[in-house]
Amino acid sequence: MISFLANPLRFKKFANVAAPIFGLLALFLIGSGLYFGLYNSPEDQLQGHSVRIMYVHVPAVWTGMAAYAGMAFASLLAYIWRHPLSDELARALALPGAAFTALGLITGALWGKTSWGTYWQWDGRMTSTLILLFLFIGYMAVWAGIDDKRRAARIAGLVAMVGSINLPIIKFSVDWWNTLHQTSSVSMPDAPGLPGSILLPLMLMTFGYTFFLGWLVLSKMLNKIASAKTRRKRPAAATTTLEKL
Amino acid sequence: MNSIGGLIVRDIRIALRSGGAWLLGLVFFAVFLSMSAIALGGEFKTLRPLAPALIWLAVVFSLLFSFEHLFSDDAEDGSLEHIKLSGMSMNAYVLAKVCAHWLLAILPLIIALPLAVLLFDLPTDILLGLFVSMVIASPALVCYGAFSGACLVGFKGGGFLLVLLTIPLVIPVLIFSVSGAVSFQNASLFQVLEFQALAGISLIAAAIGIPAAAAALNTVME
């Protein structure tokens, strides 16, 4: 799969077909997910209607984390094989990933205000999500700040890989720190107990977000390929015979 | 091995002849602590529980600002190319730089710890805890800082980005060091869970940070 798509032409063919499909799927899944989530699902016994924030919040954080994992993996591929498409993939994942993580944090704060009574809690999950956002911002700042794009790709890839090795350590340390210091017990609704009427919109939204991410990334990469091509376009040929080639 | 030692001696000699610029980290450390004490009202009763965290923050920030020039001076005057041409591996070069930086930037802070502890009227147990946590955690700080410094060679206005890149990696160190320094009071050295975690983090940081910094430096000369 990876080596098949490593050819930019084949990738372009694939992306030209896949991007609109992903976009339509995302539209359909998010639309139906919103319908089921906002209108056609039960209220929570304790939280009332505010539980519906979950359908926006949980998939956003999941997608953000998936984007970071994809970014680190694409950086590894780019580091080993020095494939420019892989660099573009990692770069294209950064901004949507950061946006999803930020969306997760913002909706989480709103949800926290209605159900815990506070916008922010130095809870293990929230803290590590915030650090994930910092990692995304640092990665994008490297791309933006280094002029030589080939070097920027190399350095940004290193930053993504070192960050991904450290993420488990950060997660572990923050959880450990939190359990030590926590004064009020705060817990998230855990997945195993969810009934189907809640699980359905959650899953619809999760897949919808994932396809949305796929659509964003593929379109961005197609843009990059197109602009790289125009930059490299040769001036019009002097002889007519060459045009047949 | 010889060349690593030679590089360390060279770095220390350059620093000593730089007119005391290497001591600015120590000055920043002192200024940061006094500013915190002033901002928090100067009462020992309120300062004492916060002091280990403040001292660690001062250490981290004083170090973070020192990494900006760790490699950029060598890259600008061309010595980096010469070292590369001499056939020395980049890993050995980074190792030498990291050791020299430990001696120049961290050792003064460790020596100054008793004075910092005096500022907050802390008991000796906490001083010992801070001392041990700094010795164990400092390799992690230097290795991750060296990685960020190597990434930002030739980057204009890199100071803030360096802080942004390094902070997420240093957060576990900060968490374990502060709580280790506090819980050291009523336990023996090998019982403190935090110090074991710190030792592990330092080893991982050395294993990742040094090769990653070397790889980042290689991109400068591609």
What is the N-to-C order of secondary-structure elements of chain A (H for helix, E for strand)?
HHHHHHH
N-to-C CA distance of chain B: 26 Å
- SS element count, helices of chain B: 9
**Structural class based on helices, strands and sheet pairing of chain B:** mainly alpha
Over all CA atoms, what is the radius of gyration of chain A? 21 Å
State the share of residues found in helices of chain A, binned by percent.
over 70%
Layout of helices and strands:
The complex is a heterodimer of chains A (245) and B (222).
Chain A: H1 2-5, H2 8-38, H3 54-81, H4 84-115, H5 124-145, H6 149-181, H7 196-232
Chain B: H1 2-16, H2 24-39, H3 44-64, H4 72-77, H5 79-85, H6 90-119, H7 124-151, H8 159-183, H9 193-220
Helix pairs in contact in B: 1-6, 2-3, 2-6, 3-6, 3-7, 3-8, 6-7, 6-9, 7-8, 7-9, 8-9
Q: How is this structure best described in words?
A:
The complex is a heterodimer of chains A (245) and B (222). Chain A has one domain: Four Helix Bundle (Hemerythrin (Met), subunit A) (Up-down Bundle), CATH 1.20.120. Helix content of chain A is 76%, strand content 0%. Chain A has seven helices and no strands. Chain A has helices at 2-5, 8-38, 54-81, 84-115, 124-145, 149-181, 196-232. The longest helix of chain A is centred in the C-terminal third of the chain and has 37 residues, at 196-232. Chain A is globular and about 75 Å long. The two termini of chain A are 30 Å apart. Chain B is built from nine helices and no strands. Chain B has helices at 2-16, 24-39, 44-64, 72-77, 79-85, 90-119, 124-151, 159-183, 193-220. Chain B starts with a helix and ends with a helix. The mean pLDDT of chain B is 89. At the A-B interface, α5 and α6 of A face α8 and α9 of B.
